[in-house]
């Protein structure tokens, strides 16, 4: 009997969206609004599962990633130029900006765990930079340099399991009010919560994860002739990894709600949450939260450049050397940004705008691809299309609001 649960390519998606951005967003949501926005988290997990199932199915059936499929389907020169330019700007340039945040977040966790060691303090004082960013960036390069999908997948499964253990253990230590948590799944919008809802959904439903999942699924099951079995394994993977990511985010939000909401205390970043847990909930709570933040930052520091490399080489039909050069360049840029303490606000703003434009477009392209003759008998059913277009409508509203805020 096949197990209904497993960990595989969908774990890369979980590793991608549970990064420092999600930790900060979920922490701020809990600190400012308590458990009231858990419904938005539930929606984002369901929407992610709907889109990622289509991306994985596309990769398994065609044996190619989303980038390769878009290159074959979009033939009109002007449409191709516009779409490819937007993807390159949003995924490659955007992920370069986000990579600095991934390594900075991982560094905050490392600092809380080991920051007082003499060697690290000496490097900080002598060189005036963040040595954790250099060390963790180098570790990300080491993982990806091996070039073997199974090696990368195992590393990311390990990091996701570490995150799960750390954040869920922290939640149990803080003993949240379960009845209050359950009321948070009833949709309602507290005053001033609109931006936080957008951020909470936007950090989970991200376009580059579609490229990552389609390509990694194609690699995972490339030697599996039985498509039905491959799809069954992919569904089990999806049912395990994405909800696990939702549980991790729920744990972060609920921990922050228990520690901050209604106390009068102010939280500025995720590092504050780790440090503030010790006086109230004990030293283990601080170390577990810091470990989770470190694992979240490092996992995203691996998946962010990997997704960009899949997208770029798939779209432009580039060689394996370009694949490696793409992810290496993004990691190096992130190391420089994080180690020097830079805040490239203009680039981050640009990335947010392009991602806001890209999300509904890529969702529509994905729906087009999974309804094409390329998938034959594995095309979308009416139910899958209904769910897909409901998510598309939501991404359109989300992106419209994001763009409005970016230019207002």
Describe the fold and architecture.
The termini are far apart. By secondary structure, the protein is mainly α. The protein is built from 17 helices and no strands. The radius of gyration is 20 Å and the shape is globular. The protein has a single domain, classed as Amino acid/polyamine transporter I. The chain crosses the membrane at residues 35-51, 78-98, 129-148, 155-173, 193-212, 244-267, 287-313, 325-351, 357-378, 385-407.
Characteristics:
408 residues, Amino acid/polyamine transporter I, 0% strand
Q: How many domains comprise the coordinates? A: 1
What's the CATH superfamily, by name?
A: Amino acid/polyamine transporter I
The number of distinct helices, counting runs of at least 4 residues, comes to: 17
Strand coverage percent: under 5%
Which CATH class is shown? Mainly Alpha
Q: What profile does the largest beta sheet have?
A: none
Q: Which spans of ≥5 residues are poorly predicted at pLDDT below 50?
A: 118-123
Mean pLDDT: 85
Order of helices and strands: HHHHHHHHHHHHHHHHH
Which structural category fits the helices and strands?
mainly alpha
Helix content: over 70%
Q: How many E strands? A: 0
Named at the architecture level, the CATH assignment is: Up-down Bundle
Give me the CATH fold name: Amino acid/polyamine transporter I
End-to-end Cα distance? 56 Å
């Amino acid at each position: 009997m096949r197990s209904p649960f497993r960990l595989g390519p969908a774990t890369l998606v979980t590793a991608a969206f549970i990064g420092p951005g999600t930790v900060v967003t979920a922490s701020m949501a809990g600190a400012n609004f308590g458990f009231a926005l858990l419904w938005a988290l539930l929606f984002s997990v369901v929407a992610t599962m709907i889109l990622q199932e289509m991306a994985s199915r596309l990769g398994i059936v065609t044996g190619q990633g989303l980038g390769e499929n878009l290159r074959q389907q979009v033939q009109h020169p002007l449409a191709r130029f516009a779409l490819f330019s937007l993807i390159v700007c949003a995924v490659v340039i955007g992920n370069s900006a986000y990579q600095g945040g991934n390594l900075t977040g991982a560094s905050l966790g490392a600092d809380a765990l080991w920051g007082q060691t003499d060697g690290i303090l000496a490097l900080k004082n002598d060189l005036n930079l963040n040595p954790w960013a250099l060390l963790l960036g180098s570790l990300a390069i080491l993982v990806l340099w091996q070039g073997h999908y199974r090696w990368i997948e195992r590393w990311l499964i390990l990091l996701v399991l570490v995150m799960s253990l750390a954040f869920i253990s922290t939640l149990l230590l803080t003993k949240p009010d379960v009845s209050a948590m359950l009321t948070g799944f009833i949709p309602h919008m507290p005053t001033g919560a609109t931006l936080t809802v957008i951020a909470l959904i936007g950090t989970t439903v991200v376009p580059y994860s579609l490229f990552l999942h389609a390509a990694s699924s194609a690699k995972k099951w490339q030697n599996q002739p039985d498509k039905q079995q491959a799809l069954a394994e992919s569904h089990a993977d999806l049912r395990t990894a994405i909800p696990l990511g939702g549980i991790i985010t729920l744990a972060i939000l609920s921990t922050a709600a228990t520690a901050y909401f209604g106390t009068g205390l102010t939280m500025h970043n995720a590092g504050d949450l780790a440090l503030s847990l010790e006086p109230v909930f004990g030293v283990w709570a601080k170390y577990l939260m810091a470990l989770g933040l470190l694992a979240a930052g490092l996992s995203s520091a691996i998946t962010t450049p990997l997704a960009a490399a899949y997208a770029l080489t798939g779209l432009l039909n580039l060689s394996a050397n370009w694949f490696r050069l793409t992810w290496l360049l993004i990691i190096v840029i992130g190391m420089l940004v994080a180690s020097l303490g830079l805040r490239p606000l203009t680039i981050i703003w640009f990335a947010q705008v392009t991602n806001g434009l890209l999300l509904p477009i890529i969702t529509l392209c994905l729906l087009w691809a999974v309804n094409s003759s390329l998938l034959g008998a594995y095309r979308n059913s009416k139910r899958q299309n209904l769910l897909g277009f409901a998510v598309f409508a939501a991404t359109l509203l989300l992106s419209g609001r994001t763009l409005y805020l970016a230019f207002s």
